[in-house]
Task: structure prediction
Amino acid sequence: MTNLPPRAGRRCAHPVNLLHATLFFSPDLDAEFQRLGVTDRSAARLAARSAPLGAVGPGTVAAAFYNYNHAFLARHLPAVWEAASPAAVLDARLRAADATLRRLLGEEALASAEMAEAAELALRAAEACTRHARPLYAGNADLPVPDAPHLRLWHATTLLREHRGDGHLAALLSAGLDPVEALASHTATGRGMAPRWVLGTRGWRRADWDAAVERLRGRGLLDAEGELTEAGAALREALEEETDRLDAAPYEHLGADGTARLTELAKGFLVTAVGAGAFPADLTGKA
Result:
């Protein structure tokens, strides 16, 4: 039984996830990694997300990230750890998160009572997250909680994002969607990354994308124009519902009022961040 309105957890997770994701589009992350001697943007982003797992190689990251090309990962991992240790990367990641939030939200927002409130609500929600079968969440959960409210919030959004993401990967696997099929079907909803962003950041070729689209058509999930069929739309919604189920505990723990308040606060900060240019204008879309 749930004490939450329908999809309340999903509505909260959306702005929470995007606040976390601002780091991975930030020039501040590039600057921090360049100081470490890592100048390749792909290597920097792979290291920033995987560092809580240790000095891992491409196989571990392919398993934990799900939708990246193993050959692409192998071009950057484990070589990046020769330039910067996981500990150095985690320090750089937190400095970049600090600079990013200061630049996007402004000092007044960082010092506000709302920021402190959002951080404590998000951390309280994360108390109910579980480690089993959730490698990216578990790795981040072993890290210390920062002191500053805005960094406490970013840390908490990381925990909540990776907890939901780990569960989502289990749902994708259960639904029988391989890495590129998962990406292509999400893009077909109109809410996923545009194909050029997927190909550029995940390391797949256009031929891989086209082959995945053909497989989805063969399963009756996409039509001749690449749009979701009724069955395809139903599958994507079923995936989200299963992800909601696997990710219910944090928001149940926070309660209906707390979840609604965290949603409100996270949306407010996200609107400010988007207005400050947190994400590329062409990031999402079907084309």
